[in-house]
Amino acid sequence: MDQNPLLQTFDYPPFSKIENSHFKPAFEESLKEARTEINTIVDNTETPTFSNTIEALEFSGQKLSRISSIFFNLNSAETNTELQKLAQEISPLLSEFSNDLLLNADLFKKIKSVFKDKSSQNYTEEQSMLLEKIYKNFTRNGANLNTDDQKRLREIDMELSRTSLNFGENVLAETNNFELLVKDKSELDGIPDDIKESAKALAEEKQKEGYILTLDFPTFIPVMKFSKNRELREKLLLGFGSKGFKDNEYNNEENVLKIVKLRLERANLLGYKSHADFVLQERMAKTVDTVQTFLDNILDKAMPSAEKELEELKAFALEIDGIKDLRKWDKAYYTEKLKQKKFDLDEEILKPYFKLDRVIEGMFKVASKLYHLTFKQVNDLDTYHEDVITYKVYNEENKYLATLYADFHPRAGKRDGAWMTTYKDQYKFNKKEERPQVSIVCNFTKPTKTKPSLLTFNEVTTLFHEFGHALHAMNANTTYPSLSGASVYWDFVELPSQLMENWCYESEALKLFARHYQTNEILPKKYIEKIKESSNFMEGLQTTRQVSFGKLDLSWHALESMNSIESVKNTENSAFKNIELLPDIESTCMSTAFGHIFQGGYSSGYYSYKWAEVLDADAFEYFKEEGIFNDEVAKKFKENILQLGGTIEPMALYKQFRGKKPNPDALLKRAGLIKS
Ligand SMILES: [Zn+2]
Question: Distance from the CA of 605 to the center of ligand 1, in angstroms?
Answer without folding.
Answer: 15
